[in-house]
Design goal:
The protein has 266 residues and is α/β, with parallel strands linked by helices. It has 10 helices and 7 strands. The longest helix is centred in the middle third of the chain and has 29 residues. The protein is globular. It binds NADP nicotinamide-adenine-dinucleotide phosphate (NAP). The site of NADP nicotinamide-adenine-dinucleotide phosphate (NAP) has 30 residues, from helix 2, strand 2, strand 5 and helix 7.
């Protein structure tokens, strides 16, 4: 099948609208761009209004697609739900990209930060997947992309809560992949290693982790794998690292390796 036919099929299966939660820069922006290239209209969500509107304008200028954007905090699921419900658009794809990652010893992370991590990384993606999969089931087609991380493959010191939420997303994606496939809906969990996004580059004080790849590559590989498998691990180094850490090494060794890796984050 040629590229044009693949794009038509992608749009037919996951369009005409896609919603990207956490869309204004970094990986979220790469997802939005890749989806616009496939001709999908977009609903973009993020907190920073100016950057979000600039991103929406950029996409409208470059691609023949409609783009709507709403500045909201995804910690507030009810707000996201009311926007989506009021829009009443045929949204065929949910990409949940936003995340909150408090870095530090558990004793130094506040209750407020812990609540925020659960809200942004667990509650909202879970309830959006529920909300948005119902009309997809009725249409008999659609897709859901959830973001996980290599950090979620084992306990990760100084990223303990974030890592646990990322494990949740990978396992949720696998369960939904199995359940929703017969209803025509493709679900994928992306277990990413280091991605060269502004957030990663801000947190990483030393040099980037081996296997660090661009946001564009992660977005493209994930969208290409949608419908083919429940989990994608973009990048060869990351695939090997995940295999070693989760299947070959004893857990305590994997946890120690991760501790050495997360030591450079702040
Ligand atoms: N970067 C990495 O190395 C890496 C590695 C493994 C996995 N991941 C996963 O990949 C995804 C992207 O990670 P990233 O940190 O690099 O982010 P990113 O894609 O560069 O940016 C995050 C996007 O989400 C928005 N956002 C963040 N918090 C939000 C909130 N509470 N409400 C609404 N929008 C919000 C941001 O805009 P505003 O700030 O304006 O809201 C921005 O548009 C995450 O799920 C992360 O767990 C990243």
């Amino acid at each position: 099948m040629n590229t044009k036919d693949k794009k038509i099929l992608f749009k037919e299966k996951y369009g005409p609208w896609a919603l990207v939660a956490g869309a204004s820069y970094g990986l979220g922006s790469a997802y939005s761009e890749a989806l616009a290239q496939h001709g999908l209209n977009l609903v973009l969500l993020a907190r920073g209004k100016e950057q979000l509107e600039a991103e929406a304008n950029r996409l409208r200028e470059h691609y023949a697609v409609e783009v709507m954007c709403y500045a909201i905090d995804l910690a507030d699921y009810e707000k996201a739900k009311s926007i989506i419900t009021n829009l009443n658009l045929p949204i065929g794809l949910l990409v949940y990209n936003a995340a909150f990652a408090p870095i530090g010893l558990f004793e130094n992370i506040s209750e407020e930060q812990l609540n925020l991590t659960i809200a942004v990384n667990v509650k909202t993606p879970l309830l959006l997947a529920k909300l948005m999969s119902i009309p997809m089931i009725q249409r008999g087609k659609g897709g859901i992309v959830l973001m996980s991380s290599l950090a979620g493959g084992q306990g990760s010191s100084r990223l303990q809560t974030y890592a646990a939420t990322k494990a949740f997303n990978a396992i949720l994606a696998e369960g939904l992949w199995k359940e929703l496939k017969p209803r025509g809906i493709d679900v994928i969990g992306c277990i990413a290693g280091a991605i060269l996004t502004p957030n990663y580059q801000k947190a990483e004080k030393t040099k980037s982790a081996p296997g660090a790849i661009s946001a564009e590559k992660v977005a493209k590989k994930t969208l290409m794998a949608l419908g083919k498998k429940p989990i994608i691990i973009p990048g060869t180094v990351n695939k090997i690292a995940h295999f070693l850490m989760t299947r070959l090494l004893p857990r305590r060794i994997s946890i120690n390796i991760m501790k050495n890796k997360t030591g450079g984050l702040s």
